[in-house]
Amino acid sequence: MLETAISLSMGLFTLAWLLNLYRLIAGPSLPDRALALDTMYINSIALIVLYGIQVNSKLYFEAAMLIALIGFVSTVAVAKYVTRGDIIE
Predict the structure, then answer these.
(1) pTM score > 0.70 for this model?
(2) Taking the alpha carbons of 32, 15, 41, 2 in that order, is the dihedral positive or negative?
(3) What is the predicted pLDDT for the residue at 69?
């Protein structure tokens, strides 16, 4: 039962990732693209965690945490660029 739920969840998160990729490419404005990229890395984290549960390995959880930290810093940098036009003052 758990394997079915994990497989279904991985399929749905993959679909969400692909829809975010479309919004990233065809987004009408820069904030839309930034939000799509932010959502893509969150979906990637979910996929990595689900895969870690599936193979029963703790290594994937550490990789997901690293991606979360990098994603947070990049989201802050993109938001600062969108609002001010410059990252470093």
Answers:
(1) yes
(2) positive
(3) 94
